[in-house]
Amino acid sequence: MTRIDFHTNVGNSLMYACRLVRKAYQAGQQAVVLAEPARLRAFDEMLWTFSPLDFVPHCMAGSAQAAQTPIVLTADLEQAPHHGVLLNLGAAVPAQFARFERLLEVIGDAPEELASGRERYRFYRDRGYALNNYKQGG
């Protein structure tokens, strides 16, 4: 069964997600980041600039290098080249999340993120998934 971790109260969810994928990369894990196209573009840009001393190799799922790249960004999980860690930055429950060993849900402070995060939390809980909660800040 997929392990599901909720990271809440994170402030800027894209910045927090950058740190999570850096951690996964440094641990030798592959990750797929799912979001709507505009949010993916913003995340892609942030991965290049969030830490001047770190490089996190990443590409879009449609790239010829996707299968060899540790961090893959996509708006469509059908294109995911690996199924280790899924980081969901989208508003909906990923249709194919059960294919992954681990799902990370990152919930920022924006009202729309909080509302969609609560809906996703209830969805997983109501289906019997054990949920791990990591609340940041105070």
Automatic annotation (TrEMBL):
Pfam families: DNA_pol3_chi (PF04364)
UniProt record, GO biological process: DNA replication; positive regulation of DNA-templated DNA replication initiation
GO terms assigned for molecular function: DNA binding; DNA-directed DNA polymerase activity
InterPro entries found in the cross-reference section: DNA_pol3_chi, PolIII_chi_sf
Domain of life: Bacteria
PANTHER family named among the record's database cross-references: DNA POLYMERASE III SUBUNIT CHI
Name listed for the protein in its UniProt record: DNA polymerase III subunit chi
